[in-house]
Amino acid sequence: MSTDAATSAARIELRDVTRRYRVDETQAITALDGVSLSVASGSAVAILGPSGSGKSTLLHVIGGLERPDAGSVNVGDRELSSLSGRELAAHRRRVGFVFQQFNLLPALTAADNVLAPVLPFRVDFDAGARARRLLDAVGLAGRENSLPSRLSGGQQQRVAIARALVWEPAVILADEPTGNLDSRTGGEIIELILSLRDRRGTTVLIATHDPEVAGRCDRLVQLADGRVVGDVVTSASHGVASEIATPGGS
Ligand SMILES: Nc1ncnc2c1ncn2[C@@H]1O[C@H](COP(=O)(O)OP(=O)(O)OP(=O)(O)O)[C@@H](O)[C@H]1O
Ligand SMILES: [Mg+2]
């Protein structure tokens, strides 16, 4: 396979996206209900809303982990519904996922955790050098050989962020990335994600319940019952990023 990981940032465009989950023969939950959203390349958007409002589902359809039942999802120049399973798998490698549970493999060192996503592939880059460079970029130089159990929660999340960057993704999707961290460490993790955005031009979406995290993003998109019910550009915006997707919005 090609290993020319995409480095260009990606604009994200959802049109009328609906995602339902079947509960039983007669009932379905509508997790996303006609969501339309445009996210400019290189922006940092907080996805807010109560539990069950569809935040994770939104990230999953953008990342190609789930297919919508209706509507279209464009990431960069790709329309996801037109992709084959194989192409969708390639799309998932253009997206870096960061989760609340860091999901590190306990028996692997920090460096090997960073490289875990590329292990199944033959790559044309020096994997060890890339792991060192990424761990350095997240502030963990010298900890390449540490096991997760020897790292603090914040350090484990840094390893997870380095792992999310291993294919040089155009998009970072972070689902409650500070949910398991104290507020100071959580603040540091958000600063790290935003600094990566600043340096790489990566588009960032962060699902969060934390108002402090949201306040550091350029734009706040509020969900309720699977719909977009609010969309504001914040004062944290650098003036590059956001545009409002609601009809008639500026
Ligand atoms: N795999 C699934 N099967 C059935 N229902 C699901 C599934 N995943 C999500 N749902 C339902 O879809 C709705 C949206 O869920 P989602 O996980 O996107 O919410 P959320 O905003 O991320 O919530 P939280 O803040 O608790 O993480 C909820 O009603 C949830 O129960
Ligand atoms: Mg969620």
Total number of domains: 2
In this entry the ligands are: adenosine-5'-triphosphate, magnesium ion
Class based on secondary structure composition and strand pairing: alpha/beta
CATH superfamily annotation of the largest domain: P-loop containing nucleotide triphosphate hydrolases
The total beta strand count reads 10
Strand content: 25-35%
SSE order, one letter for each helix or strand: EEEHEEHEHHHEHEHEE
The CATH topology of the largest domain comes to Rossmann fold
Mean pLDDT: 90
What profile does the largest beta sheet have? Answer: 6 strands, mixed
CATH class descriptor of the largest domain: Alpha Beta
Q: What separation lies between the terminal Cα atoms?
A: 42 Å
Overall form = globular
Low-confidence stretches: 1-7, 239-250
Lateral strand order in the biggest sheet: 6-7-8-3-9-10
CATH architecture of the largest domain: 3-Layer(aba) Sandwich
**Rg to the nearest angstrom?**
18 Å
Output the number of helix runs: 7
What helical percentage do the residues reach? 25-40%
Description:
The chain has two domains: 5-94 and 170-249, Rossmann fold, CATH 3.40.50; 102-168, no CATH class. Residues 1-7 and 239-250 have low confidence and may be disordered. With 250 residues, it is of the alpha/beta class. It contains seven helices and ten strands. The protein is 28% helix and 26% strand. Helix 4 (127-137) crosses helix 5 and helix 5 (153-164) packs parallel to helix 6. Bound molecules: adenosine-5'-triphosphate and magnesium ion.
Fill in the keyword field for this structure.
250 residues; alpha/beta; Rossmann fold; 2 domains; 6-stranded mixed beta sheet; 4-stranded antiparallel beta sheet; 10 strands; disordered N terminus; disordered C terminus; binds adenosine-5'-triphosphate; binds magnesium ion
